[in-house]
Amino acid sequence: MPKATKQKRAGVSNGPYDRKASKGSSSANTNIFKFDKDFGQHILKNPGISDTIVDKAYLKPTDVVVEVGPGTGNITVRALEKAKKVIAIELDPRMGAEVTKRVQGTPLAKKLEVILGDVIKMPAMPPCDALISNTPYQISSPLIFKMLAMPNPPRIAVLMFQREFAKRLVARPGDSLYSRLSVNVNFWATCKHIMKVGKQNFKPPPKVESDVVRIEPLLGSARPNVAFEEFDGLLRIAFNRKNKTLRAAFSIKEVLAMCERNYKIYCTLHNIPIDESLADTTTVATTTTASADDDMDMDVDENDDNNNTINNGDEDQEDEEDDEDMPTFFKELKDAEAAKEAGKTPSRNPKSRVALVVKAKVEKVLAATGLGEKRARMCDQNDFLKLLLAFHEEGIHFS
Ligand code: SAH
Fold first, then answer.
1. Which residues are noted in the entry as S-adenosyl-L-methionine-binding (predicted)?
2. I want to staple 148 with a disulfide (CB 3.0 to 4.6 A). Which of 19, 48, 188, 236 is the partner?
């Protein structure tokens, strides 16, 4: 879905009802009130596109569908005709009222449930068979992550995104748009481009072109048998500097500190004694640890679209848009990086024995997998999976 001006998502309590009065018209496609671009409100005015979005979801009469951002209901009414139920999650109460009015008094009304609120702030997405959305620009990334992280994700998702974002979904290793998002989507799902959508198909027209994509999460035994948070946690570390080697990414002291914390918890939970003899093997390596992240290699991060310091202007769309859900450690990592960039030197604690053990284990994994010198931007999903399993073998976890 096209972009809108970036702003922090608002809760329902301070939603647009408080600021703008609805004119009360029941006409679905006229400008009933001023569309709020801050909420990504670009209504589809070409019925053919609404039809295609619903058609490409191959809905069955038994399906429960979640639609994110029904707006005035252009896609909703078509989905209601084909599915058992549509749960429409809408941030703007004026829109919630419009979509309700649109089906009032028709047989479709009893199949529609409207939930007012921010889908990203909901503790969990309602279970469903299909997800459809002309997705508001601000929530593209968090919405996909939220869906992929579901233990039982929908069978199919047909989603409209701004073109640049859609390209990132299908990016392959080595592509400039390859990112943590690309790896996750293609690891947990298959993704297919459905169609291009020009800006003239929306009211008001957005600044950029859009694409419809179909994402089919892997289900049941086809779903990879690893925890989402673990795989994603590893990717966050690797793509924090995607043009650096994995060895450099895992030499950052905040990363090692997190591995150490998790390792201690793991050992305690599983009653595993820590083999401190490993500590003696890392004396040399640890002397370089504090500065390894500064530059173990000399590559310039010319294309690092996961680097949160980059600002390519309005059109840029970062994985970090899902920051609200970011685990604490990764917030700390970003804060530490920001402090470093601001020229502040964080205090350095003397290395504990466990820290040395963890450092040795990290080195062992990187050497054994042969991935230490590889850069995240060149790694495919099997490289990351191999790395994750090797870390797990050593008792090192990322969530
Ligand atoms: N589906 C309609 C409207 C799309 S515009 C159509 O295609 O014509 C995007 C809609 O998403 C708007 O109604 C906007 O209010 C809603 N929206 C924006 N952010 C949201 C969020 N975080 N959670 C739920 N709905 C949201």
1. 42, 44, 69, 90, 118, 134
2. 188
